[in-house]
């Protein structure tokens, strides 16, 4: 079974915008590298990722965490 978590391009962009705003509001005390622009490709790749699959990624790749099923509030809390 492929993972049941679904995120749209729009929801992922909205997540990034909230991260960007948190940085601008000085709620993030470190540089932030946003992933914008590759939503279509990463959604396509993660369509084949199954629940049992492991995903290893860099610290920056919050899109990967979201698409794998980590709740957005947990990803956000880690960024903040």
The dominant shape is globular
The ordered string of helix (H) and strand (E) elements is HHHH
Radius of gyration: 13 Å
Q: Strand content of the residues, in percent?
A: under 5%
Q: Report low-confidence residues grouped into runs of 5 or more.
A: none
User: How many beta-strand elements?
Assistant: 0
Mean of residue pLDDT values = 87
Q: Can you describe this structure?
A:
This protein is an all-alpha fold and 80 residues long. The chain is 49% helix and 0% strand. The protein contains four helices and no strands. Helix 2 (39-46) runs parallel beside helix 3. The longest helix has 16 residues, at 9-24. It is globular and about 35 Å long. The protein starts with 8 loop residues before the first helix and ends with a helix.
Chart the SSEs and their pairings.
Elements: H1 9-24, H2 39-46, H3 62-68, H4 72-79
Characterize this entry briefly.
The chain has 80 residues and is mainly α. It has helices at residues 9-24, 39-46, 62-68, 72-79.
């Amino acid at each position: 079974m492929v993972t049941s978590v679904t995120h749209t391009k729009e929801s992922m962009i909205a997540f990034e915008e909230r991260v960007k705003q948190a940085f601008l509001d000085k709620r993030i005390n470190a540089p932030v590298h946003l992933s914008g622009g590759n939503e279509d490709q990463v959604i396509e790749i993660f369509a084949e990722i199954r629940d049992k699959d492991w995903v290893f990624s860099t610290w920056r790749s919050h899109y990967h965490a979201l698409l794998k099923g980590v709740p957005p509030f947990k990803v956000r809390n880690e960024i903040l």
